[in-house]
Specification:
Length: 718
């Protein structure tokens, strides 16, 4: 077989696009001198049928759920093909299977694989004859555990005297080859069976949001097995112009994926938008999952509008799991952002103690979502394999592209920031010191407080086998202030992450702020506790600042400044102050953001104090009810109902629902829902997959966001 190496200027980068002609049906041997021609029918061996044995292969490879007409298998593991010849095999018959991927397939690049079944030398994939029954032969093929991942074309070629006689191009024999978390020699091998079921096979997820002390969650439909999604994920690699021969390398593939999920510099999948203007697309809060986003991108080639961090993470998780890579979505609460490689997040205040918003450049996100993938790291020292941080939200460039990772979680915990990729950036996100600076009239900054525990307070992911929250903070950092933590921070500083060493005066005054959960449209009651540990009375001149903020910590609208004073007695005196922020004060300023940020600052002689509180406003819920017999291919009905509890009408209300394995996304638009009015919307569906399933619905409009419902106690039988 020829090894058709393409010239370097024609690197093969297309897997799913229109293929160049593969090998001809008859290819003469180059060293033959006899006349060349076809062997007459009936005298030679010919192929009558090629059966990819999907019913046998898919369960063995855990790929039954993929909604595609083609075989899907995992590398490093045997699959079988049944070939029916024109007659039983005889001694001396010579045939081979050929698997080709991309244009200009090349044996030396791994994109052309020849599998033989006799003593003749084969390619890297192993082949064996498992069974012969008359003209039917069952063949076993085992791809290498580092084989290229993508869509292969399959041919059977027979030695026919002067050349090789091949089967015709037949798209029904194409097969998809994926990474294999079940194979001990694959780079993504995951030893624990329950974790494989969760991190590779689960097509529904829970993404944590909210703020510390008020963590919320939203369901996200990954849908990696839905029709067209696997092709869409391969299309992303094609659109990236990633060479075919690199697509078996886990590190290169996930770095390319991290760059391509955002559109920042490579026309990738999603356009980020952290404003309140979504007029050119859909608000990030309106998505129910990844499927519609990936299909829209694959069908149009145009980046999809719009996304924020949890959307980037949800779609990236679909991409990874679809290709067989164990992955999960992570939420870091109080996530430091854009720290220019140091460990200092500087918040600047004016001389009177009020926030200096114009001169504050750093920000702390209420939460930030990224992904982890599980893989070995042969390029790094022992102990740095396992979970790796990857982030597709465009924040900073890495080697010229907006991407992040894979950064070993173990390296983050130990402060080993000398290793690739982007360890320093991730380390700062979870370990920055918050430095409170006071700015005088001349612009001079003076630090007056340093908080070393605020950033990265908790890091969560979905628990294995349930919708519960799993705290994985300990995998990223040692307990704050412990000897191990100090060792990690010192090591990080040795690798160039500058820490804060400000000497700030000790203060005898402090304040805390608390608030119960608040429903959208209700008043906010803030409780402030002032403490005096000194031996002289103090009068604090205080101020409460209130803003509507994006979850990134950036202020959307500042709506309140309320000065007040508090007199504190001596001997550990405490004084409580209650302040109410009415709904009329904040409601006119809300957009897509339902997050309020309150900062209490105070000054007493030479002492300054500060406390802050994030309040996530709770939205009303949808109601979702499913009726019918929970059986595969038996029609069922789902009904979504909603009552507008507000005193104002809701305009242009978009409602959508979907459930992987149950129904594709359906949507409905209501022009207006008047105050106290109700809607009811029903859809029928035919369940495709058995087992536990979930439906999710979302309601979104210009003056109400983040309204969701879930039907989760559904278990379907065959």
């Amino acid at each position: 077989v020829r090894d058709s190496n393409p010239p370097s200027s024609e690197v093969p980068t297309s897997n799913l696009g229109a293929m160049e002609e593969d090998f001809p049906e008859f290819e003469p041997f180059e060293d033959e001198v006899q006349p060349r021609g076809f062997i007459p029918a009936g005298e030679g061996l010919m192929v009558q049928q090629v059966d990819m044995c999907q019913q046998q292969n898919k369960p063995n490879h855990y790929t039954t759920a993929y909604d595609t007409g083609n075989l899907v298998v995992r590398r490093g593991q045997e699959f079988v093909v049944r070939v029916t010849f024109s007659r039983p095999l005889a001694d001396g018959d010579d045939f081979q299977l050929e698997f080709l991927i991309g244009s200009n397939p090349s044996a030396s690049k791994g994109s052309l694989v020849v599998v033989t079944f006799n003593s003749r030398h084969s390619g890297p994939w192993m082949g064996q004859i498992l069974e012969m029954q008359g003209e039917s032969v069952l063949l076993g093929i085992t791809p290498t555990p580092d084989a290229i991942v993508g869509k292969f074309r399959t041919y059977v070629a027979i030695s026919a005297g002067s050349g090789m006689q091949r089967t015709k191009r037949d798209t029904s024999t194409d097969l998809y080859l994926l990474f294999n978390a079940w194979c001990p020699t694959d780079a993504v091998f995951l030893p624990d069976g329950a974790e494989r079921s969760e991190y590779v096979l689960n097509d529904i997820g829970v993404i944590n949001q909210g703020s510390v002390g008020a963590v919320s969650s939203r369901n996200w439909m990954y849908g990696q097995f839905e029709r067209g999604v696997l092709d869409a994920c391969i299309h992303i690699l094609d659109a990236s112009r990633m060479p075919i021969f690199n697509r078996g390398n886990i590190i290169q593939l996930i770095r390319k994926g991290s760059a391509m999920i955002n559109s920042q510099d490579d026309n990738g999948v999603l356009v980020g938008n952290w404003s309140d203007d979504y007029s050119m697309g859909k608000p990030p809060t309106s998505w129910t999952g990844s499927v519609q986003i990936l299909l829209q991108y694959a069908n149009t080639g145009v980046p999809v509008c719009f996304a924020q961090c949890w959307v980037f993470a949800g779609v990236f998780n679909t991409f990874l799991r679809c290709l067989g890579i164990p992955s999960r979505v992570i939420t870091n609460f109080n996530s430091a952002h854009d720290n220019t490689g140091n460990l200092k997040t500087e918040l600047i205040f004016k001389a009177d103690g009020t926030p200096d918003r114009r001169n504050t450049r750093d920000s702390i996100w209420n939460y930030h979502c990224w992904n982890e993938v599980f893989t070995v790291r042969p390029d790094l020292p022992n102990g740095l394999g396992g979970w790796q941080v990857v982030d597709s939200t465009p924040q900073e460039t890495s080697d010229g592209h907006f991407r992040c990772g894979p950064a070993p979680v173990a390296a983050i915990k130990e402060g080993l920031l000398c290793h690739p990729f982007d360890c320093g950036f991730v380390f700062a996100e979870v370990n920055s010191d918050v430095v409170y600076q006071k700015r005088d009239r001349y612009g001079t900054l003076t630090p007056y407080r340093v908080d070393k525990t605020y950033v990265g307070q908790c890091i969560y992911t979905k628990a294995v086998g349930s919708s519960a929250t799993h705290d994985i903070t300990h995998t990223y950092k040692y307990p704050e202030g412990s000897a191990d933590d100090e060792r990690t921070m010192s090591r990080a500083e040795e690798y160039g992450c500058a820490r804060d060493h400000s000497e700030v005066p000790e203060t005898q005054l402090s304040v805390t702020i608390s608030c119960e959960q608040v429903g959208l449209g209700h008043d906010v009651n803030l409780a402030m506790e002032f403490h005096n540990q000194g031996d002289v009375p103090r009068t604090v001149q205080a101020n409460l600042a209130g803003s509507v903020v994006f979850y990134t910590g950036v202020i959307a609208t500042h709506f309140k400044d309320q000065p007040f004073s508090v007199t504190l007695c001596v001997c550990a005196a405490e004084e409580s102050v209650m302040l109410t922020v009415t709904a009329q004060e904040y409601m006119p300023h809300l957009g897509a953001q339902l997050c309020l940020h309150f900062v209490v600052t105070g000054q007493a002689d030479d002492q300054s104090l500060i406390a802050s509180k994030v309040v996530d406003l709770q939205t009303p819920g949808l109601q979702m009810q499913v009726s019918g017999s929970p059986q595969v291919k038996q029609e069922m009905v789902v009904t979504v109902t909603f009552t507008n509890p507000f005193s104002f009408p809701l305009q242009d209300v978009y409602v959508a629902m979907e459930g992987p394995g149950l129904m594709n996304q359906r949507s409905h638009l209501y022009r207006v829902i008047e105050s106290q009015a109700s809607i009811s919307w029903s859809e029928t569906f035919l369940p495709r997959l058995p087992g536990p399933r979930r439906l999710v619905a979302v309601l979104n409009c210009r003056n109400l966001h983040q309204v969701t419902a879930t039907a989760s106690s559904l278990h379907f039988t065959i």
